[in-house]
Amino acid sequence: MKKFEGIIFDIDGTLTSTNELIFASFNHVASKYLNKKLTNEEIISLFGPPEDTILKGWFNNNLSDAMEDYYRFYKDEHHMADAYPGIVEILEFIKSKKIPLGIFTGKGRKSALITLEALGMDKYFDLVVTGDDVVNHKPSGEGITKFVNEFSLTKEKVLMIGDSTGDIKAAREAGIKIASVIWDSYAKEEVLKQKSDYIFHSVAELKEFLEENLR
User: How far apart are CA 176 and CA 44, in angstroms?
Assistant: First the structure.
């Protein structure tokens, strides 16, 4: 009997090594329009809402140009990013079990789809909930609740897989289980303090767990 009847993934730092691309994209815009360079920590502190919301906080003028530049750079430099080895095999396995598979990310829809399509992952997901699709961004659980309701799932049988404290808080607010993956987490220490339901240090560990619990 399957332990889970629905699974939700975060994108950055969970499915894909996109953090360096995100840092570079924000700094491309900051350098060009504001003549400044941000540290990774400064950019991380902005995570939660989608990119458009973050950029709106930076600009009174040139907003549309800056947004266009951000997404052009993000798409053109996407070779900087990749799926973590073994992730696609996990997605294939979950799909073979015929349970709903979703995304809940703080990214805007535009950058989320650039990444999922560039890496050939979009075909695996039954629902993609981005920062553009919710009123309340992570760490709110609104996006998770959308997934649960869309497929009429039992909350206790839904698993969120993510790399940040925001994923943990969102899952808890929505009343589902949380698996924290820390193979490339920018907040590993903070994540470990939160005492998630499950912790995975490698993609192989996660794969083994899912194979055991989706029989």
Answer: 25
